[in-house]
Amino acid sequence: MPNYCTNASFIVPLNQEQTKFAFDVIDCVQDGRIDFNNKRKNVTAKSFKTDVYKIAKKLALSLDYYKPNNVCLDFKIDSHTNGVWISHDETINIENAAYFVHLILKYFKLNICVGIQASYTCDESRFDAFGGNAVFVTKKGLKWMSTDEWLQKQTDAFNKRLVA
User: What is the CA radius of gyration of the chain?
Assistant: First the structure.
């Protein structure tokens, strides 16, 4: 059975305070003792700074399959001299990673952009298993581009010219 994966690795330029905040958000969202569906914060939730909790809650509730005690972001963050390095060992969830970056940029009102390039691969030759996408992330939002969509637009335009 073929193994499909998405690869990406990128840096989010943050200072030390912002980097600590980003790590605190990840720690909060992954703390299995917190249920972000509850309106009231439990003791564990109260141990996090209010702003950290708010951002973690937004991230957690944006996940397709959010369940307390089983938060799967499908990306990891590491410290880097220029901020935070986001990647994954096997396959990265670009949507989750991009939204996390957006939340951090928005919270700090950072007037910067982060470009994410991802590749889709497979350990077997398949005609539909390869491609990629790019995400342009700012404090204002996210813009996506898929290689599959781009190729389809080019093909449609080509075929339209042939008919004309």
Answer: 19
d(CA 120, CA 128): 10
Q: 121 burial class (0-12, 13-18, 19+ CB within 10 angstroms)?
A: middle
Taking the CB of residue 139, how many other CB atoms lie within 10 A of it? 17
Six-digit token string for 67? 């369940």
- Predicted TM-score (pTM) of the model is 0.92
Encode pLDDT of 39-70 as tens digits.
999 999 999 999 999 999 999 999 988 988 88
End-to-end Cα spacing for the chain: 44
SS3 state at 99: helix
Q: How far apart are CA 69 and CA 78, in angstroms?
A: 22
